[in-house]
Specification:
heteropentamer, A mainly alpha (721), B mainly alpha (524), C mainly alpha (97), D mainly alpha (504), E mainly alpha (175), C: mainly alpha, D: 504 residues
Chain lengths: 721, 524, 97, 504, 175
């Protein structure tokens, strides 16, 4: 026996399908990791300096000197830089894939990750149309947000740490969307959860903020449990967790509508609900607004929270096989959309409104994914990434301005409370404009991005409700109606936000008002780009009838059904299964009766009406600044202001009981029962010893007596037994 | 010359196991002979040398067919059939390497912590290392038992002399608790010895013992008690928090990283192969799984409400070892391999956690979580290491903890889905106990003036933690080399269980006949 | 006859035992022990009629031993009397528990 | 050389160690009288006694190495069992004398009488080991007992010593009565007191069972007293506590060993045929002894008294070997006794050293911090305690393991379980001494005690030797183990021959 | 005749024994003991053990008991009238235990009759009587004492030596 080389080394990258050669796909993932490492080292160096100062009783201000220290200048280039290169690479690959008209996913294997007797998981990435879209969104929007952050976080002492976390987040997000199997996806899944945790609690010395991070992580883990269990079931059913074999074998191995596939999809749904903040696991997302605003834009609006939608879309084949799960997904989605929208009506924190708006929009995406409109869901995911990122960044610009102004005025007013704002439009023109663009987009006003995507989801809901053999037809109709109402609510609360923030009289602290100013260029340029995307982003997936109609200016606008075709290879299996099971969807929408065009027209008009009505109704209202606003709303408004009491119910129903049970386990079971028993055995033995030793009276008579007693016993036993 | 170089591998394989086992004893004498001040350096050098030596195992160990490699056997007490027999297989190789790694790290980590009676301390540490390595290397049951018990004494003194306030209570509790189990196991060992009729205490001879189901169940109970206390399995765990809280840092590290592993190692090495029938008896499996799951959930809950950071981590050990228990008794290859990885991972991450807590204690002389807060601001390197370790401990993908728990759970799911589902909630509860501690120690306001002078990691402490953190991530990212090395041995265990299934459960005409002797026993 | 002798021997033996238990005077306790030895001697003698001369021989040995014990025992009693000024065994309880 | 007892010279040869030792004892006695002790003189007398023991050991070795016997019905057995046991007694006596040297001088005891009594008691033990006749066993027992009675009460200045002497004497004599009654009944039942004759009578079925059965019970009681089996153990703690510590050591090791050896020969050899009659008695005695001995030891705060209870517990372990009764168990009894002798005397040597002038410092608190103040004493005491507890790495473990092996071979599972569980109990009180020594700092009194606890050279030598032997025996026990196994051969062979010869 | 004498001696012996245990003064106990010893000597005679009967009276009742008396007198305990008998529950317990022990022994001995006990008891007795006639009462005992039991005999010598040494050591006054 020598130095055996029987253990094979890591696999060289192996490419399974050679129809198209991806360009350095691994580098797309690695670049953000590289950024993380560089920024992380810088962060540690700067933290070391500041902590050394702290220990000696002073504070280290990195911005005090004439020039910023290198630890605070390098990240400016490294952070967005790696994102930019990654985005370019992603674009390059997109172009390649576009040209190759790829049908099957390209899987690139790097090394064997886990290998046991009957399980092999490779560190592999999968490139297909869906992951490509996600990569573009993640790197593209991510890049813009990085750039915005340069301005937003400029004066934060933890600047390098911030970029390290942000880069790490993008790394995990890319792993999530590019992983070639559920296991890889899970790495990213938990990884982004970690980064979300770190970034929410970025200002970790603030108790509330770090609480929020913790809450996000734990709630996410509840969802992760579902994901984990789904993986176990998948492994049991398929013996692998790779996407390829699972989806190819799904129809053969799993009975359509059967318990297994339903269980798998419901468990996946649980995972998705955790990550995408669906009811009832949505409670973490509003709290997550504790993080820096660009983080909210990137993680809690544009990318991470949509991972659930991505996962459902990715598993479209499985969902198509499980109509019940689909109905559940759609139901959860629509319920979430409605509840979140109602809550958003009564929030005063600008970020909270956006957070609930995000939850609501994610609900729409789930609705889409649930009814089988996977493309529509992804489409909405994409457009939502644009306009919600824009909204958050815009809000960030507002908060940035407010914060500076209040800081200058030595005011302790809340910089995020809309009751302290008002009339900002005069001082923040650009922000005001782009925010309106985004608001109209999310409200679903033609021809902005949100109109096409949201519209499509609602329309598909109706269409599938009318599918001939859909067992849940009625339910779908209800979904559709709720979705409609929610869409109207969306328009309303967004208008409310705009009105309270930018219009009317200024309620800003008088001394602070002069200090309000527009965001620097590094911040508004990304806003502008996103605004453009919010306008035109929806044009990539316009059904032909619409594009040919008045809404597409009779084909004059560059609209196409491109996304639909692009995602065809990913979704057509699911579509085929679903159509086979439920029948063709009813292409005439209910109530409206007509086709896409009539419906679209009606919906955009309705949305516009709501926006205008809201403007009128709210525009004239006098708002009271937060400091003076003591009136606690009652009735339904109170319920909404208190977010339907979800947190309270969880607290009383789960958190406290578990805590109480934990205490009980510790103080009673552990200390009294188990340890008590153990100590009892010990003490009892010692006590017994002591008791027996009392017979040792020191008197010879006693000893003789005991001896005789023994004699009697032994003799008696011997003679009689 | 070239011949000599070519012969080095064979030479290495001939003596390496003996060297790993006895070099620490040599170090012990060296420490005893040295001056008080130099004791720590000497001890570190010896254990470091052992570690370097053990590194060769990574390349030279050949998993082969899953049997023992580098076996050697010398008669020791011939009249009893006891021999000094050592061997290494895919199960023990990582345990040995974990030992050789952890010991120097624990010693290095104790440089500042142990201020009094250093010679005695380091001598005991080295003795402990010999004991633990012996447990993992012995292929003779008598020899195993000797080492198994031998580890108690140094630990008893380490806890009792250098421990905290209630050190004596903790030390004695630890000692008696574990002794109860192991002595009953001794009786069981003798039973098998006479049942096998081979007049030998070798591992193979014991495998050849022909035991009926009834006998197997009794013996299983005795062995399971011994190992279950060591692990510790749920209701037998109360010695652990006390021992951990009172033990000095290096003691806790060794206790968590190595001594607990002796229990689960015993499961894999003895319990399953010796009593394959009992191990798959439905009632036994049910009991073990329930206890494993109970440990996971219960310990996580109890951990979550501990005010003492060290006690918290101690309870997490119980939870982690619960994963090993269910993985093992799932009797699937994934479960067993997962259990093994959890053992390795827990050894690394919990060891690191104890080192970190020790550093906290050295700086602040308190272990109460509420006495900290905002440490992240004053000690960024410390905080980074702490967070990474905590994440590895709660099984974040990309760290070693995930691989183990994932495999253990998936393996359990294959045969006992409900168990796995309940156990998987441990994933949530892990976050539930660990994150609040991280938050309350590292985050929140730096509002206690004493904490403002909390020093960051020194260079020595970086050297202590660096390898552990690196390993956590390495195993998390690329565990395949580990998994490949352990698989054949795990398969051997499983095959034995399978074999017994056909004999004892599936259509055996005479269940009383028991297990047929293994073919391995016939080969000579 | 043998049975009666043995019964008598047993009775004497048990009375001796009783004496050891209920008397406080060390000398009387010792005397009771002598009584027990005598009972044994009686048994030996009775049995010797049925098994041979050795029985009587043993009585001879036992008497010698009894004499030796008497010497040592009384010496011990004298020795302890010097410390306690009594031979009441109840007083000798420095050593207990 | 073959002993056939045709010449009375053969008797002398067969009893050579005993003869040597008896004569030497008289020489010591005269030495004591002639030289008048006091000063350092007593030490020389002591070393002389050790020399005599060495001579006896050599004589014993000569017998062991090749003397055979041909006298099935001889009263004296010349088998290796006896000779191995003799070595144990000699070793125990020698170690006890060595640790007595300083004590005797310090307490101004009469060295000549003291050492000669030890030697004579040793002769008694050797007789017990060699006797193949109940009467000779009885005489040996008395020889030993009378010597030890005197030794226990030897320190006339100490009332505790006197009290212990009286209690031991009264109860000892009392128990002797039972033993003697038992002998009488066995004699009546089997027609002989010769062990081989008894065995053959039982084999031939010519015993009177109505006498045999109570006879066996009474014999068990008589021996049970000497081995301090519960409930015949009541004297042990008091006597062990009160006796001069070296004498306690001697009693704990040698007296117990002698009683066990005789016990074993009578029961395992002589009464083998009625194993069914006596094993339940001993089984329960063993179980109760182990439990009570260990459990009550927990309650002790005096180290000497704790060791007394510990010796009761060890008696319980050894009874297990008797119950098992197979060759492994017999060998284990021998080996255990040897190891036990070393470790218990060594432990008492530490107690003697710590005890100081007044012998009063034997409370557990007096040991606080001793380990760090007197590392040599501490380390050695720890080794001895661990060995007494039966921990791996020490000879005590090997001995206990062999005992269990014997029990397991006899399939005495429950007794084995009791044995190991009570062993766990014993860990507590042994470790308690260790934790006082190492884990407590101790107050000024303890510090003063430690500073005066300077073992003299002889005691030091005993400690080093014992610790060395214990660890050596724990790691390389093979040689001595084989010797013990070898010593079992021949124990029963003659019985088989005798029964053939006797059956017409 | 033998039976009557046996009963007579037995009654006296038992009475004496009870007297030993129950007498209030040590001296009385001692005298009762002498009575018991004497009656036992009488029973020896009934069993044809004349030599032992003689020694019993001479050595035991004579020498040893006188030694006891000396000690009692030496320690001035002769008139120690304080009851050293334990009454009450203790004596009751002792009685019960002793009674039960006696019962067990009696139960065991009841069946030990002449016939069926180790073959023919009469033959052994006859052989013994013949030996006594031939060698004399002392000779019968002396012969095995110096042949088969010579070892025991020598041991007895040693035993007496030890007893002397022990007695001397212990009884020596404190210096």
């Amino acid at each position: 026996m020598g130095f055996a080389a029987s253990v094979p080394g890591p696999h060289l990258p192996v490419q399974e399908v050679a129809q198209w050669e991806p360009v350095l796909p691994g580098l797309i993932i690695l670049l953000p990791l590289l950024g993380f490492v560089v920024n992380g080292v810088l962060a540690l160096r700067s933290a070391a300096r500041s902590s050394a100062a702290l220990r000696s009783g002073t504070e280290w201000d990195p911005f005090a000197g004439p020039a910023r220290p290198r630890t605070h200048t390098l990240p400016t280039w490294v952070g967005p830089g790696v994102m930019f290169v990654a985005f370019v690479l992603a674009l390059w690959n997109f172009a390649g894939m576009y040209g190759a008209e790829l049908h099957d996913p390209v899987v690139v294997r790097y090394w064997t990750w886990i290998v046991t007797g009957n399980l092999q998981i490779d560190a592999a990435i999968q490139l297909d149309q869906l992951s490509m879209i996600m990569m573009l969104v993640v790197t593209g929007v991510g890049f813009l947000i990085h750039v915005f952050s340069v301005g937003y976080m400029k004066d934060d002492t933890g600047y390098p740490r911030y970029f390290a976390y942000l880069n790490l987040f993008v790394f995990f997000m890319l792993v999530l969307v590019m992983g070639a199997g559920y296991a890889m996806m899970f790495i990213g899944w938990e990884g982004v959860g970690l980064c979300s945790y770190l970034l929410i609690g970025y200002w970790f010395t603030d108790r509330e903020k770090s609480d929020a991070g913790k809450k996000a992580f734990i709630v996410n883990r509840i969802g992760d449990l579902g994901f984990l269990l789904a993986m176990f079931l998948l492994f049991q059913a398929f013996g692998t967790l790779d996407f390829g074999p699972v989806f190819e074998g799904a129809e053969g191995r799993l009975a359509a509508g059967g318990a297994t596939v339903t269980a798998i999809t419901l468990l996946l749904m649980l995972g998705a609900a955790g990550k995408s903040a669906q009811v009832p696991l949505h409670v973490w997302l509003p709290d997550a607004m504790a993080g820096p605003t660009p983080v909210s834009a990137l993680i809690h609006a544009a990318t991470m929270v949509t991972a659930g939608v991505y996962m459902v879309a990715r598993s479209s084949v499985l969902y198509a096989l499980a109509p019940t799960s689909q109905a559940v997904v759609a139901g959860v989605g629509v319920l979430t959309a409605l509840l979140a929208a109602t809550i958003a009506l009564q929030q005063h924190d600008i970020k909270k409104v956006l957070a609930y708006s995000t939850v609501s929009q994610l609900g729409f995406m789930f609705l889409g994914a649930g009814v089988g409109a996977f493309t529509a869901a992804i489409f909405h995911l994409m457009t939502h990434a644009f306009f919600k990122a824009l909204l958050f960044l815009g809000a960030g610009a507002v908060i940035h301005a407010m914060h500076h102004a209040l800081h200058r005025a030595d005011s302790h007013e809340d910089a995020q409370d809309m009751r302290n704002m008002g009339g900002l439009k005069d001082r923040m023109r650009i922000t005001w404009v782009v925010m309106w663009v985004a608001t109209l987009a999310i409200a679903g006003i033609w021809p902005l991005a949100g109109f096409f995507s949201k519209d499509e989801i609602i329309w598909y809901t109706a269409a599938w409700a009318g599918a001939p053999s859909n067992p849940f037809g009625t339910l779908y109709t209800v979904y559709w109606l709720v979705a409609l109402v929610t869409a109207m609510l969306t328009a309303f609360y967004m208008t409310r936000l705009m009105v309270m923030t930018f219009h009317g009289e200024s309620r800003v602290e008088r001394n602070a008002r002069p200090h309000l100013h527009e965001a620097p260029r590094v911040m508004w340029v990304p806003l502008a780009i996103l605004a453009v995307l919010s306008v035109f982003g929806g044009w990539v997936n316009v059904p032909e009838p619409l594009a040919e109609s008045f809404l597409g200016l009779f084909g004059a606008l560059p609209m196409s059904e491109w996304l639909h075709h692009w995602l065809e290879p990913v979704t057509h299996d699911a579509a085929a299964i679903q159509t086979a099971a439920l029948g063709e969807p009813a292409y005439g929408a209910p109530l409206v009766g007509g086709g896409e065009f009539a419906w679209a027209l009606a919906s955009t008009l309705a949305a516009a009406v709501v926006v205008l009505a809201a403007l009128r109704a709210l525009g004239g209202r006098k708002y009271v600044a937060a400091a003076r606003d003591t009136a606690a709303p009652g009735g339904l408004r109170g319920i909404l202001a208190n977010k339907w009491y979800f947190d309270e119910v969880f607290d009383a129903g789960i958190v406290r009981p578990v805590l109480a049970a934990s205490r009980w386990c510790w103080k009673v079971v552990d200390a009294v029962l188990i340890d008590g028993f153990v100590n009892f055995v010990g003490n009892f033995t010692r006590l017994a010893g002591w008791t027996v030793s009392l017979f040792q009276t020191g008197q010879a008579n006693t000893y003789a007596f005991v001896l005789t007693l023994g004699v009697l016993l032994v003799l008696g036993a011997a003679v009689f037994l | 010359m070239t011949d000599f170089i070519a012969s080095i591998p064979a030479l290495y394989e001939d003596w390496v196991l003996h060297a790993l086992l006895w070099l620490p004893v040599a170090g012990l004498f060296h420490v005893m002979a040295a001056a008080e001040d130099r004791a720590k350096h000497i001890a570190f050098s010896w254990s470091g040398t052992v570690f370097v030596l053990s590194l060769g195992l990574w390349w030279s160990f050949d998993p082969g067919g899953g049997g023992f490699a580098m076996q050697s056997s010398t008669p020791w007490i011939e009249s009893w059939g006891v021999s000094y027999a050592l061997g290494l297989d895919g199960i023990s190789v990582f345990m040995v390497m974990l030992t050789t790694l952890t010991t120097p790290i624990a010693i290095l980590g104790s440089f500042e912590y142990i201020k009094t009676r250093r010679k005695a301390f380091y001598a005991l540490m080295l003795l402990l290392q010999t004991g633990v390595v012996g447990v993992f290397l012995a292929t003779d049951i008598f020899l195993f038992y000797v080492f198994f018990e031998l580890t108690l004494i140094p630990m008893y003194f380490i806890v009792g002399i250098w421990g905290g306030e209630r050190r004596i209570y903790a030390a004695v509790k630890f000692f008696l608790y574990t002794a109860v189990g192991s002595l009953l196991m001794l009786v069981a060992i003798l039973y098998i010895y006479f049942s096998s009729g081979s007049g030998s205490f070798s591992y193979e001879a014991f495998l050849g013992a022909d035991l009926t189901m009834r006998e197997q169940l009794w013996l299983f109970a005795a062995f399971a008690l011994a190992f279950g206390i060591k692990v510790p399995i749920f209701p037998l765990h109360t010695w652990l928090p006390d021992a951990h809280v009172e033990a000095p840092t290096p003691g806790s590290v060794i206790l968590a990283s190595l001594l607990l592993k002796m229990g689960t190692y015993g499961f894999l090495r003895f319990l399953l192969p010796f009593f394959p029938g009992a191990a798959q008896h439905p009632t036994v499996v049910a009991v073990m799984l329930v206890l494993g799951v109970a440990g996971i959930i219960y310990a996580a809950w109890v951990a979550a409400v501990q005010p003492d950071a060290k006690k918290l981590v101690a309870y997490t050990s119980v939870a982690h070892m619960g994963f090993v228990v269910i993985g093992v008794f799932a009797l699937t290859v994934n479960g067993l391999q997962g259990g093994l990885v959890v053992m390795i991972s827990h050894g690394i991450s919990t060891g690191a956690l104890f080192l970190l807590l020790g550093m906290m204690y050295e700086r602040r002389h308190t272990r109460r979580i509420e006495d900290f807060g905002g440490i992240g601001r004053v000690a960024p390197f410390f905080a980074t290491a702490f967070v990474i370790t905590a994440l590895a401990s709660i099984g974040l993908p990309g760290t070693s903890g995930f691989i183990g728990e994932f495999l253990a759970l998936i393996g359990t799911f294959e045969t006992h889905a409900v168990t796995a589902i309940i156990a998987a909630t441990g994933v949530i509860f892990a976050a539930y106990y660990m994150l609040p501690m991280v938050q309350r120690v590292l985050f929140n306001k730096l509002d206690k003036p004493e904490n403002r002078t909390f020093a960051d990691l020194s260079r020595r402490e970086c050297v202590v933690l660096g390898p552990l953190v690196a390993l956590m991530i390495w195993i998390g990212v690329h565990p395949a080399p580990f998994l490949r090395r352990m698989e054949p041995s795990v398969q051997v265990v499983l095959e034995r269980v399978e074999e017994a299934r056909t004999v004892l459960f599936d259509g055996a005409s005479d269940p009383g006949a028991g297990l047929a002797p293994r073919p391995a026993g016939e080969e000579e | 006859m043998l049975a009666y002798a043995l019964l008598l021997s047993a009775a004497l033996f048990v009375i001796g035992t009783l004496g050891v238990i209920v008397r406080r005077n060390a000398i009387i306790i010792f005397l009771s022990i002598e009584l027990q030895l005598n009972a044994v001697n009686l048994a030996f003698v009775a049995l010797s009629r049925y098994t041979g001369i050795e029985g009587q021989l043993f009585v001879f040995f036992v008497m010698t031993v009894a004499a030796a014990e008497a010497a040592v025992g009384l010496a011990i009693i004298i020795s302890i009397f010097r410390h306690y000024k009594t031979v009441n065994v109840d007083r000798f309880n420095l050593l207990k528990w | 050389m073959l002993l056939d007892y045709t010449s009375s010279f053969h008797y002398v040869m067969a009893l050579l160690p005993e003869v040597v030792l008896s004569c030497w004892g008289m020489v010591i006695l005269i030495m004591g009288v002639v030289r008048k002790d006091g000063g350092g003189r007593g030490q020389e007398t002591g070393w002389m006694a050790v020399a005599g023991l060495a001579l006896a050991a050599v004589a014993n070795g000569w017998l062991y190495s090749g003397v055979a016997e041909d006298g099935a019905s001889a009263m004296i057995a010349v088998d290796r069992f006896r000779l191995f046991a003799n070595w144990i007694f000699i070793l125990a006596a020698a170690l006890s004398i060595v640790i007595s040297l300083a004590y005797v001088t310090r307490q101004k005891l009469q060295a000549g009488e003291y050492y000669s009594l030890i030697l004579f008691a040793t002769v008694g033990m050797m007789v017990m080991a060699s006797a193949r006749d109940l009467m000779v066993i009885f005489l040996g027992l008395e020889l030993m007992s009378i010597g030890v009675y005197a030794l226990v009460g030897f320190n006339r200045r100490d009332r505790r010593s006197a009290e212990a002497g009286l209690k031991y004497f009264l109860l000892g004599a009392f128990a002797t009565g039972f033993l003697l009654f038992g002998i009488a009944l066995i004699y009546g039942a089997a027609g002989s007191t010769n062990i081989q004759m008894i065995a053959s009578a039982i084999g031939a079925g010519t015993t009177a069972n109505q006498l045999l059965v109570p006879g066996i019970a009474l014999l068990a009681i008589g021996f049970g007293f000497k081995v301090a089996a519960v409930p015949f153990h009541m004297w042990t703690p008091d006597v062990y506590e009160g006796a001069p510590t070296p004498v306690t050591a001697f009693m704990a090791a040698a007296v117990k060993a002698a009683a066990f050896v005789a016990f074993l020969r009578v029961f395992v050899v002589g009464l083998e045929g009625v194993y069914g009659q006596w094993w339940p008695i001993l089984y329960w005695l063993a179980a109760i002894t182990m439990v009570v001995g260990n459990v009550v030891a927990l309650a002790q705060s005096n180290v000497k008294r704790m060791l007394a209870y510990s010796s009761i517990a060890h008696g319980g372990y050894l009874l297990v070997a008797l119950v098992a009764g197979n060759d492994t168990a017999v060998a284990s009894l021998l080996f255990y006794l040897l190891v036990y002798t070393i470790m218990t005397i060594a432990a008492f040597a530490v107690v003697v050293t710590v005890g100081g002038q007044s012998e009063g410092n034997s409370r557990i608190e007096d040991y606080a911090g001793l380990g760090w103040r007197r590392p040599v004493l501490g380390v050695f005491m720890t080794v001895f305690l661990l060995s007494l507890a039966g921990f791996p790495g020490t000879a005590g473990f090997i001995a206990k393991y062999q005992l269990l092996l014997g029990a397991a071979e006899a399939r005495l599972w429950w007794l084995s379980v009791v044995l190991v569980l009570t062993t766990v109990v014993s860990y507590w009180y042994y470790l308690r001494v260790a934790w006082y020594m190492w884990m407590k700092e101790g107050d000024d009194t303890a510090a003063a005690i430690a500073s005066s606890a300077d073992p003299p050279f002889a005691t030091h030598a005993v400690l080093v030797l014992s610790a060395g032997l214990i660890i050596l025996g724990g790691i390389f026990p093979e040689t001595v183990l084989d010797l013990a196994y070898g010593s079992v051969e021949g124990l029963r062979l003659l019985v088989a021959g005798a029964s053939q010869a006797l059956v017409p | 005749m033998t039976e009557i004498l046996f009963v007579l001696f037995a009654v006296v012996a038992l009475g004496g024994a009870f007297g030993v245990v129950l007498s209030r003064t040590p001296v009385a106990s001692l005298l009762f003991m002498v009575a018991t010893l004497a009656s036992v000597a009488g029973i020896y005679v009934l069993f044809e053990a004349h030599f032992l009967a003689a020694i019993q009276v001479l050595v035991y009742a004579g020498a040893i008991m006188v030694l006891f008396l000396f000690v009692i007198m030496l320690l001035n305990l002769g008139h120690d009238y304080r009851a050293d008998l334990k009454y009450g529950l203790w004596s009751l317990l002792a009685l019960v235990v002793a009674g039960l022990t006696a019962g067990v022994l009696g139960q065991a001995f009841w069946g030990a009759s002449d016939t069926g006990f180790r073959g023919d008891g009469a033959a052994v007795a006859a052989a013994l009587d013949a030996a006594v006639r031939e060698q004399g009462a002392a000779g019968v005992i002396a012969e095995p004492l110096f042949t088969d039991y010579v070892v025991a005999f020598e041991l007895m010598g040693l035993l007496l030596l030890v007893a002397i040494v022990a007695a001397v050591v212990l009884a020596k006054p404190k210096t």
